[in-house]
Specification:
Elements (H helix, E strand, L loop, with lengths): L1 H16 L7 E5 L2 E4 H9 L10 H21 L6 H36 L3 E9 L5 H19 L4 H8 L3 H5 L3 E5 L6 H9 L9 E2 L3 E5 L1
Antiparallel strand pairs: 1-2, 3-4, 3-6, 5-6
Helix pairs in contact: 1-3, 2-3, 5-6
């Protein structure tokens, strides 16, 4: 305990004195040294690092105690205990599985994009806007989008449905034509809706941030 107290006192004195050299030893424990650079690197990872003028001094005793506890664990051979070894192994397995899952997902997305890029789709678009955060407005837009979708499924002409449900005059003039698309032309969830639907078939309404969208 005295060792920790003297280490804190000495290190605090050095910080107050304004030492800034990166290789300057801040404190020692046993035969090991901790430099100011090492301490400051750990301190800067602390979310509260810049919230108080005395934060760096407040963090110092915590960091020293942490170093002493880790060293005590090594001295007692805790790192070689079967339970600790098993826990470490399980943690490594979890990291490996997570990495493989992310890698597999990335490979699947690349394959998907390659496949889609070989089959362009000609797309028309109908949007039915709503006021974000307004549940009533959103519900009404959803009902209109569902009604428009039902008509498109019944093979009603897209331009007729567009003129009935769209409030976008420019879209009406252009017949809702987006044109030919391929991978990465549209935001991913819209692109997926288009490529999931059969060519020539309407997509179910896709909710955006401020509108429901249908594609044909």
């Amino acid at each position: 305990m005295k060792q920790a107290f003297f280490a804190i006192a000495a290190a605090s004195g050095m910080l107050l004195a304004g030492y800034s050299a990166g290789a300057q030893t801040l404190f020692t424990y046993g035969k090991k040294n901790v430099t100011q650079q090492e301490f400051l690197k750990a301190f800067q990872k602390n979310p509260t690092a810049t919230q108080s003028p005395t934060a760096i001094q407040d963090y110092l005793p915590l960091y020293i105690n942490y170093k002493l506890k880790v060293q005590f664990a090594y001295d007692e051979g805790m790192d070689s205990l079967p339970a600790q070894q098993d826990e470490l192994y399980q943690y490594q397995e979890q990291l490996t599985e997570s990495f493989i899952a992310r890698q597999s997902n990335t490979e699947a997305l690349v394959t998907e994009a390659m496949q889609r890029s070989q089959h362009d789709r000609f797309v028309r678009h109908l949007s039915i806007p709503f006021e974000p955060g307004n549940a009533t407005s959103e519900q009404k837009a959803k009902q209109l989008a569902d009604a428009a979708f039902a008509q498109l499924q019944s093979k009603v002409a897209f331009t007729k449905v567009l003129n009935q449900y769209s409030s976008d005059e420019d879209a009406k003039k252009q017949g809702g034509i987006v044109g030919w698309i391929t991978a990465f032309t549209l935001p991913y969830f819209y692109e997926t809706a288009v490529y999931t639907a059969k060519p020539g078939s309407a997509t179910a309404p896709v909710k955006g941030s401020d509108a429901y969208h249908l594609f044909l």
